[in-house]
Amino acid sequence: MCGAVTEDTRVAFRSSTAMVYMFVQMSSEMWDFDTCGDLYLEKAVNGFLTELFCQWKRSNINSELTLVLFSRTIYEAKTINEFPESMHGALHVDSAGRIYEDFYRVVVHNERRDDWMQMLSTLKQIMWEYNDAVASSHRGDGSIPKGYNCKAADGNLLEAMNMSLNVFDNHYINRNFDRTGQVVEIVTPGAGVFHVDRTLCDITKHRMIDYGIGSDLVCLAEQPPHPVPLLLFNDDIAKSPGSTDTHHIPYWLNYSFYLSPSQRHRNFSSSQSHFIPRIRLPTRNAPDRPSAGLNALPKLPPRTANEMHSSGSHAAGYTDEEWDEFSQFDRTIFKSHPARVKKCNNPFVPASLTTKLTPDRRRWTHTFPHGPHGDVIQLHHRSSSQSLMESSGGSGSELSSSSSASSLCNEFAVEETTAEGLKIVLHDARHEATVANKEQPPFAQKESPSRIGSLMVNLKRRIGCGWGITGEQAWTPFLQTGVDWKSLTATACFPITTDFYPDKKTLEMDYLESPHTLDIIPDDGDEAFSPSGKTIQSAFEELVSQRLIQNYQLIVLPRSEIASLAHKGSSHLPLVTNPSKHEYILSYGQTYHKIILKPDMKSVEIVRYNARKPRTSPKLGYSYRLWAIRKSGYETAHTRVYHKPVDNKWNHRDNYICLGGEATREGFDLQESLKFWRSRFILLPSASSLVRKLSDQGYQGPVDVFEERSMSQRLTLLDGFLRFVEGWNRKRRAPSRPPSQRPSVVGDPTQTTTPRRLKSRSGPTSGPTSGDSTPTTFQPNPMLSTASINSALASIGIIGGGGAKGKEEGGGVFLPKSPGSPEPDKLSLLTPASHVASIMRSPIEGVSLMTGDVKGLTGDCFVSADAVAWIRKNLIGSVSHDEALSLMQMILEEGHIRSVFSATANKTFLYGYYIYCFVPQSEVTSPDSRRPSGIPATRSPLTLTFDTTSRNPWFEVSCSHPEGGNYGKLSHQPSEESSENRDETAAENQEGVDSAEVEKDNGIGSEPETSFQQPAYKSLFLEIDSSKLKDRVEWCHVGYHSNYNPVSAFEIELQWLTSTPSLLQELITNWARRAVTSGFHLVPTHVDPFGFNWDTSDSLHSPLFIELRLPGDCLGEVKGSGEDSTAMEVGRRIQQAILTRFGFLSNQTSYHSPLASNTQSDHSALPIHSQYVHVTGCAFLLTLPFSQPPPSTLQTQHLPCLCKLGAGHTNSSCPTSASRTQSNGMGFESPIPERYGGKFGFLYVHNYLLSKKWRSSATGDEKFHEALLADFSRFCQGEDGRLVQLLETMRSCKEETSAGADDDQLG
């Protein structure tokens, strides 16, 4: 294959990994026969779907498919009161007063398969049983009126399309890096004619066009003799005086007509027949003008002027002079004028299908190829050559497969031709372009190509055909439509260019101009770089790219067309993109943006044109019956239907892009209104050995083989997590050395070699040096010589000796030997904090410092977890984790150490991966003048304290130690202080010190980790391409849990606006690889799996409720008991024990994204709720009833009901709103326990983001997921006695605990 690419070449991108929502309309025609005797149901499954999936397999299509069956049932009833109250939630009333109910059956939900043919047998069985399932959905509701399945024309077509649009308009959430493109496909047994609501049609049209969603409507019936698809409005025109249209031809909906193999064979046989009809139509002569095309009637050859003159004059007896005088009088008196009457498009009159083009009309034009006449066409719309030849009498070569734009222009010109010539009036927003010729029509005369081209360009941009996506391909009765297999197989991506330009008069009269200037490079800044690190050219291109990814389109025209328009004058120059002048014009619906790079190359001017009368879209509510995946029947569901606003704070977005890492400092931080991309991941401990064992058994046995992790396993997970965070930061800690390999503080004076793992702190040199030192990247400090160390230790009374013996006895570091004292003292909890800090500073016996050439950090930095481990290792006695934390808190308060990055960690010492540094001795104050915050008044040149908005921050995470007193409690919630966990032995050894003063000053026994309300999430700015592999600066934001607990999951969310997906994919891959080496695995997860957020929930998704059937004597009477009752507490403990046995981990999460604005403030700014995730990452769970209700947003008001619009009740709520539970804006009724009758149980959601790409031995395969759900359901139902056995075990453990407590009291 070869070709030539020029500047006028348009490249159309197509995707083989799109998100496809396929709806199959199960109307009554599905059980009818077509013209060849085939059932439409079999025609859909055995015909269309079979061929489609074969095309997918042949073309290696790996799209993500959701397949839904939908229908509408109309009941023979007059009022809703005839129905039981349980049905009122999903009933609707149309404009004719008919009561109906919509049904949706989800067969496949977000799945990817290499071969879809195996699914067709299951689909066919479900379709055969569809009517019975719908009829039996209300079997338990009592007596109901009779209902019937409606025809395809009366079905819920637009409602089904909006179900998918509710997912597509949130495409920026739950993003992955191996999918692109969105398309909705509808298969209907009808012929493309539907009765719809006017308002819903307008909402659907703007959502489809503005969101850039592809669509395909496949009709199984015969093609009608009029343009389709055709949407007929249900409302009465008399009630809408401003509306004159009774129908709408949806140009935004690509349609196809499928012919079964038997139909194609029949048509081929008829085309090969040599039957000659007895009656033949008379042939007509060649058309006199190009406008007399297919729609002109045959006529006799015209008589010549001499024949007409001679016959007329002689018949009347007039002379030639008298005849000329009469003719001149007639032309003057009976002069005709073109009538300016607004025409309505009549689908049965092809000549009336011309309409004014709009920007929305040309959104998808650049996706399709050009026809033989230069017009944009769709190849699956073809004309029947046999019919054309019979009607025209000409050869097939004279007729093209489609009508060109010139034929549209000619048809329009003929209608406005007068006796004096041709006058074409183009009405386009108060602007008229007139082309007049006094002699004859312009297309009949031989004009220059430039004049004809100028006229065609003007008509092409302003007038087009009212049918079809392109607006240039005219409809004719001979047009035969096939199947657009190209669109159904490789989905077309939304084009980034368009050719519809706004004229200057339209912009002046119908638009408001909003200019603003971005000073990318300040006057005193570098001439080459902006604050974000971008060059001026790259920042300018990024501003344009940000609009393209938000479905804006560049307005471009070929140079020849621009030159043709330039001949008309400067007022006719189009507002189009001109790269040579650094001027880009973009359009989106009723909005235009003009971006210009100023000649000074330091600033960018942006002009936004917004319509004076913007479109308004109501926010509607919709109720329906849904059979979700893994459900056993239909349930009532609710969703919203509305068009989200187009403009999303472009001024804020532009400043954010130009400022980069300084955006937060300047007040332009990342916000939800910017619709940024986000992907959430979850870090889970690996259980690959258990999953592999279950796989070897074929998942035949029980799956509740997961046990609670022991103390050693939790410590292993904690150490592995710290190693993961090291890799997260792309840094390494020094490995811990055994005590025998550590050099002693006091040893051979000549042995002065510094170990390689230690780093010297840079600073001013003073004093002589003795001995040699190991070469490092830092300058050696002479103060670290042996003599200097001995001098420093002697000044504070510390001497060495007997180190090995001391470690064997107590594991502590020896203190100075006092005069007259036979034995040296050791470091203990009684040792002053300043002495402990001095030993920690030691390069030999001190805490391990951070290794490697760390940019921006000094050599005296360490990790908080290493410091706590050093305290517990080097102090005598058994030092608990909480006591070590208290000692480090005292050292922090006295000003010996401080946090490098976190202001919070400067107040409270946080255990985990927090970076602290030593404060120089000259800045450390006495204990009597401690600074409350622990931050010195003056900043040392040796220590760098970073700001939280730094462009090179570090990931810092606190950890809950398994031996800590606050273990298992939420880090973001204040926990109760418990002093009984303090080691009593250490308190008894504190001679001469008041215990109350120790607890007050030293804080030993307190819990510094939770003495404040730590936010659940943290957020930081991350520069992705730190190695500068790309020529553009890219960054993202990372929101993650602020605390790690070995018995909980750890969430990470990636947020970006300017990053390349390939770099992000590489970043996530590196994180996942690091997780595997640390004993974890990283899997993608949902931002909101249970649909708490009402605006972003999936309308076709519903969690599965699994009831926990407990014996009656286990809980007692649960109904009516409060949350603090004994029965409720016992039920929660039972639920927790079940979740532990099946391998579910707790996860404190939020359905909102953690941003800098909601993580640096109070934790209540980000609503947190508790849910559970399986250790493999395949499923999520919620426990019912809630111990605490899920956090909700503000109470939303009732939405206008969709069903009332046709009757004119646009402001009324649903007819059954009084009987419904008020929505809380989370996607389901509140509270959830009332929905399930207050029963104990679980809500189960499958993680469909866990695709084949993320599968491993730690996640298990699809069979494991099915076995887990089945066995978990059996366990909760108590079928095999395991639930009763668990209850007996818990009861016996409780009795033993109670007996032990009684014995202690007696003792």
Automatic annotation (TrEMBL):
Residue ranges with Low complexity bias: 384-402, 761-777
DEP domain: residues covered: 860-920
InterPro entries, per the entry: DEP_dom (IPR000591), DEPDC5_CTD (IPR045838), IML1 (IPR027244), IML1_N (IPR048255), WH-like_DNA-bd_sf (IPR036388), WH_DNA-bd_sf (IPR036390)
GO BP terms: cellular response to amino acid starvation; intracellular signal transduction; negative regulation of TORC1 signaling; positive regulation of autophagy
Pfam families for this protein: DEPDC5_CTD, IML1
Single GO cellular component term: lysosomal membrane
Gene Ontology MF terms: GTPase activator activity
Domain of life: Eukaryota
Membrane-spanning intervals of the chain: none
Disordered: annotated span: 281-316, 383-402, 732-784, 924-944, 965-1011
UniProt-listed PANTHER family: DEP DOMAIN CONTAINING PROTEIN 5, GATOR COMPLEX PROTEIN DEPDC5
Protein name: DEP domain-containing protein
Organism: Patiria miniata (Bat star)
Phylogenetic lineage: Eukaryota, Metazoa, Echinodermata, Eleutherozoa, Asterozoa
